[in-house]
Amino acid sequence: MPHTLSVYRWELRKLVAQKRTYLGLAAATIAPTIFVVALALQNGAPSDVPFGQYVRDTGLAAPLVLLTFGSIWLFPLIASLVAGDIVAAEDGNGTLKTILTRSVTRGQLFAAKVGAAITYALLALVAMAAVSITEATIAWGFNPITSLSGTTVSAWRGLLLVIASLGVYALPLFAITTIGVLLSTVTRNSAGAVVGALMIALLMQLIGILPGVGAIKPYLLTTQFDAWHGFLRTPIDWAPIIRGGWVSAVYAAVALASSYLVFLRRDVAGG
């Protein structure tokens, strides 16, 4: 019987062969380029978002600004592109039966598919950060950054904090990925799952800006996209970071458990 890691590598190879894989990665790398070029050609700055006023002071500010913009639709869409398709495509093509007859258990296949979808989302996030830091540093230099508390943070410590922020940002992104996997498993429709996962993310953002929802806003999944702000305060504010971790974990656990139960009961022989 193949090892789960072997099945995971197999799933990654299948992702590499799909056009939509490159569509999401292209968006993750082109967006920061457009952002940096636009700032270089004009005088304005996105001063209404965290670190927007510092984008021309240091190359470390650009990825942080893009984290805010990306949480609105870009990264939920990128994560959904693969997660929403990863089960539904093979289910629709009738290839799950063939895969499961190759001494691969349903548990192994499910874990490999989830792992591949999460890896893709992480790769897109890292690509955005690497491109934006590189291009913004070329444009404005690798300089100290001003924290949200108004203190000056050295460039190298700032870089470490940016990396830590990416790690916290990845948690709700992974949770949205698992929601995409759930919809992919339940609906058996790739387009519906991709759109559905994106719409759920947008709906939670809409709920978050409605009046009178202050009590539930801290527990919305999309609110956790701001948890990284805690790393950029002096001293570090661990409260939003910890909450972002466990809230994202709860959403992901519910989605994964539900999709796994559906996947285990899926009648692949009968379609």
Describe this structure in words.
The protein has helices spanning 4-16, 19-41, 61-70, 74-83, 88-93, 96-100, 106-140, 155-187, 190-209, 238-265; strands at 145-146, 152-153. The chain is an all-alpha fold. A two-stranded antiparallel ribbon has the order 1-2. A hairpin with a 5-residue loop joins strand 1 and strand 2. The longest helix has 35 residues, at 106-140. The protein is globular, with a radius of gyration of 20 Å.
Strands of the largest sheet, in order across it? Answer: 1-2
Please mark out the parts with pLDDT under 50 across 5 or more consecutive residues, or reply none. Answer: none
Distance between the termini: 25 Å
Give the SSE string: HHHHHHHEEHHH
Shape: globular
Structural class: mainly alpha
Describe the main β-sheet briefly: 2 strands, antiparallel
User: Mean of residue pLDDT?
Assistant: 90
What's the short version?
By secondary structure, this protein is mainly α. Helices cover 68% and strands 1% of the residues. The protein contains 10 helices and 2 strands, in the order H-H-H-H-H-H-H-E-E-H-H-H.
